[in-house]
Amino acid sequence: MRTIRYTVRSKDTLSIIAANASRQYGAAITADQLFAANRGKTQVVAGVSRTLTDRNLIWPGFVLEFSVPGESPAPGPSPAPSPAPAPVETQGEKKGGGGVILAALAGLAYWLFS
């Protein structure tokens, strides 16, 4: 069995989460199963301690756990970060000017968000 952790989003319901999980993982998961797997779980959500006691009341940020058939993926090595592109000098700019700094920042943003 493989354990899935799902963070509840705004407008989610256990039924919606179960239907999406069933499609995504190819396993029949019901809202009742999700509730049973998480009933009584307490977490701090938005600075407030919340305990799941009602299947009709879940909170954005609450993390649900449930099992699906299959094996957990083996942890592999983290991919190496992509190298930042070399600074590009455009016509009229001198080395060390604002264009070089902007190119370096763009490379950093590419590395952080890709």
Could you provide a short overview of the structure?
By secondary structure, this protein is of the alpha+beta class.
Detail the poorly predicted runs: none
Task: Trace the largest sheet across and list its strands.
Answer: 1-4
> What is the first-to-last residue Cα distance?
31 Å
**What structural class do the secondary elements suggest?**
alpha+beta
Largest sheet: 2 strands, antiparallel
Radius of gyration: 23 Å
Overall pLDDT metric = 78
Outline: extended
Estimate what percentage of residues fall within beta strands.
Answer: 15-25%
Total count of strands: 4
Order of helices and strands: EHHEEEH
Kindly state the percentage of residues in helix.
Answer: 25-40%
Summarize this structure as a short list of keywords or feature phrases.
18% strand; 114 residues; alpha+beta; two-stranded antiparallel ribbon; single chain
Provide an overview of this structure.
The protein is α+β, with helices and mostly antiparallel strands. The protein is built from three helices and four strands; from the N terminus they run E-H-H-E-E-E-H. It has a two-stranded antiparallel sheet.
Topology summary:
Layout: E1 2-7, H1 14-25, H2 31-38, E2 42-45, E3 48-51, E4 63-68, H3 98-113
Antiparallel strand pairs: 1-4, 2-3
Helix pairs in contact: 1-2
